[in-house]
Amino acid sequence: MKNLTLNMEFLLVLFAALTLALPASAAENCQARKQTDSNSENPPPPTGGVGTGGEYVSFESPTAIRVAESGNPEPTPTELNDSCGATVTEGSASQAKELAMTVLNKINNLRSKSGDTNQTAGLNFLHLGGAAGADSADNALLDDSRLSLFSFTEYTKRDREATASSGGYDQESNAITLGFDYRVDNASFAGLSVSVSDGDSDLDSHLGGSEVSSLMLGSHGAKYWDKHYISAFLAYGAIDIDVNRSTANDTFSASTEGDYWYADFTLGADYNYGPLRLNPSVRALYMRGEVDSYTERSASGSGAVRSVNAQDIDSTVLSLALQADYSLLQSWGVLSPSVRAEFNFDQGDAYKTNGQTLNDADKSFLASISDQSDEPDSSTLALSLGVSAQFKCGLAAYAAYERLLMHDYMNKYTATLGLRFELP
């Protein structure tokens, strides 16, 4: 009882300190940029503007298409007060990163952790007795197989609010992951997975949209000892991006692709107090990649289009989390509701765009462009509610609903369903 009190006090103090230490973050306005040409004295609108009749409206694309466009573009020199906007990498990299960040957690939640401790799908059955400790093949919750198959699917909806430098958009995406886990020994696991995702984005005010699809191949592993564990996930991903935007006089489209490498390292511990399990963990996440250069096409064939240089994907995130599960013995197996709080500290920079504005008819140079997105929110909280179930004969299931909190300009909701089966 003394150990329980000390551990609970330690966890409460730790998370209270983290909450107080969270810095207040706000989206920063971009600094002035230069856009120059040698043939005119009249300044063009900011690179984030679109409009008609000389009126320009700043907006943000989730995949980054922000352009200077008018019915009759003229080559001009100018110094812009503000040319902020989301780059192609903001929406596409965010979708790919958020998918990659969830894979390892879901694998761990579905895993049969250790054959000799009867921990399955994140549940500890030793104290439950009954079916959890049965030896017969008909009643066993655990299977002796070393190989397990798993699958999970998720639906995500994002609502990006307008800021001083960028407009808003709505984005929906679906993803599915298939993979296997191999039990190397009673406390070690390794496996492979493949994930695919598709997302559609619509800009506010019907200014355009985008479609982003990605394919990710990953390898994972985990080692458990005593109450502690370490797990890792390494992945390579490819991204395909189709974007479009609209003005009163024309429509524009572009296609490009990119790739990235992703790494996720997690250190955690399990503390069991009867049916209650507490799982604090710390994660470091790294993502590096590039989106290829692209040039827009205008429907009219004579509009002012953007030719955008290749853009880097560069993100580092530190994550601190606490998950609590409570095991309930049922006649068919074990049911475990859970709650999870995860603080994410994003060390990434704003995505930047450099390139040129061209006349689509003859590809003649009109102006240089330099643009960037809002800075990523440096500290956010993801809160999720879930339930996992361990059935007889090695079948496990998992469901969760997650909400993003404490973000300056983004609302995000994610629903997840997962299955795991130990082969006979």
Automatic annotation (TrEMBL):
Gene3D superfamilies assigned: Autotransporter beta-domain (2.40.128.130)
Region (Disordered): 31-89
Signal listed as a keyword: yes
Sorted UniProt keywords: Signal
Domain Autotransporter: 142-423
The organism's place on the tree of life at top rank: Bacteria
Keyword Mitochondrion listed: no
The name this protein goes by in its record: Uncharacterized protein YhjY with autotransporter beta-barrel domain
Biased composition (Polar residues): 78-89
Signal peptide per UniProt: 1-26
InterPro entries in the cross-refs: Autotransporte_beta, Autotransporte_beta_dom_sf
